[in-house]
Every structure is written in structure tokens, then in C-alpha cells.
Amino acid sequence: MQAATGMGMFKVKNILIAIILLAGAAYGGLKAYVYFQVKGQVERLSRAASPFAGLSYDGISSSLDGTIVVEGVRIEPRQLPDDLLIDAVELKTPGLGFLLSASDSLQGGTLPEKMTLRMRGMRLDVDSPLLAMFYRAQQARAATSQLACSPGQVLGPEHYKALGFDTLVMDSAMGFDFTGPSGGLRVFMDYAMRDKESIGMEAAVTGPTPSLRELMMRPQVLLTDLAVTYAVDPDFGERAVRHCAEASGMSPEQYAAAFASQDDAAFIEQMGFVPGPGIRAALERFIKAPGTVRIRAHPATPVDLATLAQYRPEDAIGLLGVTVTVNAKPVNDLSVRFASSPGGGALFGRLSESQGGPRASGPPDGGDERGQPRLVGRYRPVGAAALPEHIGQTVRIYTRDGKRREGRLARIHDGEAAVEHHVHGGTMTVLVALDEIRRAEVWLYGEP
Hints:
The protein is α+β, with helices and mostly antiparallel strands. It has helices at 2-49, 96-107, 129-141, 157-162, 212-216, 234-247, 252-260, 264-271, 277-288, 313-319, and strands at 53-56, 59-62, 67-77, 84-92, 114-125, 167-177, 185-193, 197-206, 222-232, 273-275, 292-297, 303-304, 322-326, 329-330, 336-338, 376-382, 394-399, 404-413, 416-423, 426-433, 437-446.
């Protein structure tokens, strides 16, 4: 009896050992399959890039959660005597199933539900020709600036060395996700220069799907949320301000004031627009106490990105519901002027005189010094009979059969309103009979 029991235990033990060995063999086989699949893809990429850059790496690893890591990457541009070293490039996919069937999925015209690409430890010497190329391009754009350097810009080799840096180490990530709780697509991008600064962007849109065929047909993309965060390490920021101030022959306080009061040409070169009093005051505060800038666009209703071009910049960004904070303090006066509109358009607040509103000036981050209320842009109801007064403006028209027409009111003729909106490759005009209009709204500035 004892012998039979012993034989039974021996068989069970052997079966368990066999299961473990089989599981180990299967795991090893899957790892090997994924390794050779990835290795083949990397080598094909290396051959394709060979006319422009050499590509080598130390090793490849993978895990069953769908993550692939290529370690010790070296990129050698053909046109520059420079190497870009990356500690690791990581691709995170939905899981092992995707790794085993990625080719079939992509050939079948379907993107994965989510994917993230990270690059960790990208290293550049401060004397790098690549960094020098970026610095020269930046200096050319800032030709009219009277300041030696700016903490928010790419600094030159001598500046980084004066601050104690011989090598710059950077991390970046980008990805997308179709599996969010509210549906739609989430895209994100992050970049950080270690111990110095970082910038992150995250956007949520509806419309796109994982189907490549549908994406090729350019679906309507509606923005529901956008967040951008720029952060400077306080210690690095303070040292950089002191250095740039000394290089400009100023104290840090004088430098902050000079940066915020630069002339229009300097701001156009550096930022593409001329900030109003509120943004200038926020810039001065940020230079004095480097920290975090947050920009958020959260429209009341999703905004069709393809139609934004038909709005004036001040109307488009106002429609997006943009808010800005600097070191957690809201910037209330977000008036700006663009180079193409010398009269000056207020993006989020007061209108310029040329637009019939009060002057785009006032105390920083405050109300109008004359006690006038701050104006905001939004859709405001008008009667159908009043539409001829708004030719050329952005309208939203609701018809009695439940349709909504949104775009620029091009004309009114023979009892019909012509609403023009952008489509891929041009514009489309829709005619709406005035007697079929249930409600009409025009984007106008007025009191909140």
C-alpha cells in the first residue's frame, strides 16, 4: 500500500515538473519569438536609415505585458560629427497578444487600442554640433532681443558650462489611447531635460477610431480637452536667471522687468505674438520665481478642429475656453496682438479699439482701469431678421427639422442664409431658408 502511495506521489511530482518545464519552454519560446521579431524590425529600420544615420544598440528585452526595450542605442548622423546616445527606447503595447499578431493587425488596417513610446536618457554633449545648430537657429529668430539669453530658450554651450553642465540628459514620451472612460482618443507627449525643465501635452478628441481606413478618410475631429504644462526646476531656473542677468549686465530684478517689457519685434520673433499687460506681468513674475505654467483649453461643447481656421484667432481661442495659470495664480488679462493684425485683437478679454471695444490695456491681471467690465466672447442669440447685420461673422443656426449649421455667414439672398465652413480641400456652402430657422446665434463679445 505504501509502495503504491509512493508511486502515486512520484507520478504527481513528475507531472508537476513536466508542467513547469513546459511552461518555461513556452515562455522561453515566446520570448525568443518576440526577440527575433523585434530584432528583425530594428535591423530593417537600421538599413532604411543608413543613408542618413548609423544605428546600433546593445540589446533587446521584452516582457509578457507587451513591453519591448531596446537598450544602449547609438545614432550617428551622416551629416554631423556627432553621436546621440540613448540609454533605452521602450515601446509599450496592449500586451503579448499584440506582439504576436502586430503584423496581421496593421496589415488588416487596425491600430492597437493604445501604445506608448518612451526614450530614456538621451545624452548630448554641450559642445555638440547638433545643439549648436539649434542654438544658432534660435539666435537668428531672436536677432532683435537685447538680452544675452533666456531661461526658457536653448542655451549656448558657454551658458550651460557656466551653469555647471557638460552633458544634457533628456527623456521623452508620446502615445495614444482609445480606451479612455469617456471614449474617443487621448494623445499625449512629454519632454524633460533632467534637473532643468519639462513640458507636457495631453489632448482628448472624439472622432478618430483605430481603423486606418477611417483615419485615411479624415474623420471629423472634435476637441474636448487640451492641457499643456511647462515647468522649470526652481534651483536651475534661479541660477539661469542670475546667469542671464549678469551676461546682460543687469540685476535679476532688472532682467525680469526687461524681459517682460521687450519691444513688439522681439516678442514676435520669440513667441509669434505681442503679449498684453496681463501676460507681460505674468512673464515677469515667472522670471523672478521660476515654477510652473499651465494652459488649459476646455470648450463648453466639443470644437471641430477642421473649422478653427475660419475663425479669427481671438474668436477661435476664446471658443476653446482657454485658461492660464503661472505658479498657480490665474492670468486674467490674456489680451495679445498678432503681427498680421496691427490693430490688436484680444484673444480672451478686451477688444482693441479697431474692433469697437475698449482699449486692450489695463492693470496687469486685473479689470479695466476705467472701471469698464471685461468683455468675453461667446455665442449670443439673435433673431433671424437680424442676421443681415452679421455678414462675415461666425454663426450657429438651428433649423426646425433639428439640423445645426455652423460657420461663417457669407451672405443672405432670396430668403436664404449662406453658411460657409471649411472641408478638406476647400470650403462648402450650405443654404438655409430663413423661415426654417428655429434659433440663430452669433459669436460676439460682450459682458459675461
